Amino acid sequence: MASMNTIKVTRIFLIYVLMLLGFLDSPFFIQRVAFAFSHDVSLPGLDPNNEHRMWVNLKEKPWCIIGRVQTELGQKCTGFFIAPRLIMTAAHCLWIKKTNRLVPTRSVHFLWGYQKGYYIKDIKIKQIVINKEYVGQSKINVPLNNIVKDRAYLVVDKATINSKDIVPLQSISSLSHAALWLGGYEQDKKEVFQVDPHCNITNIIQVNTHQKVIEHNCEATFGSSGSPLFVKDKNKEWSIIGMQIAAFTAGKGGIANPILQLMQ
Predict the structure, then answer these.
(1) In the 8-state DSSP scheme, what is residue 164?
(2) How far apart are CA 193 and CA 117, in angstroms?
(3) pTM value?
(4) CB half-sphere exposure, 89, CA atoms < 13 A
(5) How far apart are the two ends of the chain, measured CA to CA in Å?
(6) Residue 177 CA: distances (Å) to CA of 115, 199, 208
(7) Which of 44, 18, 43 has the alpha carbon at shortest distance from 33?
């Protein structure tokens, strides 16, 4: 049986080779976090000794706003309705590193309510809107000032979801100790949407005068990017406070952008 040291060295060598080949050139992978979209080989953001993610019913609120964002080039992430004709996801999920631009709009699909091959509807996207200052993942050492711009609006032709099912958005200002729920179509079980219902905000980092990022200890890995960060209050009312962007490479947790900040 191979020793733990041998296994660690083998993993480090594999990561190094993949970086040389250009598969793992995200700066957050080689530093502290990795963008959480599902075509890499490592599974950051998880704690194998404390696995407690669970399935949820995507026909019930608040989960009924969820769907899998995928492109005809193979990218897969998570997305969610914020209005009857508007879906939000992470911009890096739709970015092509080789060309340093977005994927063609016609190649993007939102599989609403996707679970084990079943989905309510394959929603075609009419328009993709990102922050004009977002520069994608093609550059080394992407700063947090770019991470806070990592969001994409997917505009659809017709209202699809009932407006009463849309989950309200909330500020993080009074929620530093709130219990969080975070899920996604993740690399280890990408055919199902699974949720960590037992996690919290661990830190809020002030990036610049007007923008922050949320650090959390939720279990979520590649594929969870673009997933909403939910909270449930004492009256069992749901709201969204953030959107998942990246997973920590060492242990569970990751980084999310405050949702109201993304709407600006």
Answers:
(1) G
(2) 11
(3) 0.81
(4) 35
(5) 54
(6) 31, 10, 22
(7) 44
Q: What is the rounded radius of gyration, in angstroms, for the C-alpha atoms of the chain?
A: 17
- Per-residue pLDDT, averaged over 16-27, amounts to 40
- How many whole angstroms separate alpha carbon 237 and alpha carbon 234? 7
**Residue 13 has what pLDDT?**
42
Query: What's phi and psi for 26, nearest 5 deg?
Result: -65, 130
Q: Which amino acid is at 103?
A: V
DSSP 3-state assignment of 145? helix
What is the mean predicted confidence (pLDDT) over 154-176?
89
**Between 14 and 44, whose confidence is greater?**
44
Compute the distance between CA of residue 169 and CA of residue 149 in angstroms, rounded to an integer. 18
d(CA 140, CA 143): 9
* Angle, CA 45 vertex, CA 36 and CA 87 arms, to 5°: 35
Looking up tokens 């190649």 gives 107
Output the CA angle 241-176-189, nearest 5 degrees.
55
Q: How far is CA 175 from CA 78, 171, 216, 219, 240, in A?
A: 24, 8, 12, 19, 11
The dihedral built from the CA positions of residue 258, 260, 111 and 116, taken in this order, carries a sign that is positive
The conformation of residue 44, written as its DSSP 8-state character, comes to T
